[in-house]
Hints:
The structure holds 2 protein chains of 2 kinds.
Chain A: E1 3-5, E2 10-14, E3 19-21, E4 24-26, E5 32-38, E6 44-50, E7 56-58, E8 64-68, E9 73-78, E10 87-94, E11 101-102, E12 106-111
Parallel strand pairs in A: 2-12
Antiparallel strand pairs in A: 1-4, 3-9, 5-6, 5-10, 7-8, 8-9, 10-11, 10-12
Chain B: E1 3-7, E2 10-13, E3 19-26, E4 32-38, E5 44-52, E6 55-58, E7 64-70, E8 73-78, E9 87-94, E10 104-105, E11 109-113
Parallel strand pairs in B: 2-11
Antiparallel strand pairs in B: 1-3, 3-8, 4-5, 4-9, 5-6, 7-8, 9-10, 9-11
Amino acid sequence: xxxxxxxxxxxxxxxxxxxxxxxxxxxxxxxxxxxxxxxxxxxxxxxxxxxxxxxxxxxxxxxxxxxxxxxxxxxxxxxxxxxxxxxxxxxxxxxxxxxxxxxxxxxxxxxx
Amino acid sequence: xxxxxxxxxxxxxxxxxxxxxxxxxxxxxxxxxxxxxxxxxxxxxxxxxxxxxxxxxxxxxxxxxxxxxxxxxxxxxxxxxxxxxxxxxxxxxxxxxxxxxxxxxxxxxxxxxx
Lengths: 112, 114
């Protein structure tokens, strides 16, 4: 079975500072990994995904994530935080594309 | 393009009343369909998923049920709501046997049980 752990349920950064949201996965076979963003009272929106190939994945809104197999990690970063980045972020994993396993989420606060 | 609809957007129901939430997908065929729940301040809890009409897998035993009467329609139901059923309900779809394909989420239904 697969699982995802998101370290830090709440992260605060200053506007313009680096955003780093952590995600570690567990999977016995090569996984597909995803980051989603959720704004209040809305559904989840895909930020980026890792399937195969290049381990550094770029997504929307300036976010990127790097797949590190040796560390079983898929951390999400953004060089400079904007106020509009304040939201809930979820990491997810699948191997079959039928069942997806989500982390418990990280709430990002951006301080002006 | 594909779209996913959920209704109602918000719902306030008394304890013990029935529930019916509907989700429909447009622009795709034979999707996987999912129901998730988010309790306040918590992550996503998978409730049900379906790989085809009439095929429902339950992930968490509780007083909720799901049905898929049509290929692109997924319904979440309850005969008697509990206070603990309050939360944000999300429907999602993905490509059947999709491997690297992501899930697409609907806008959600905010359910408050009083």
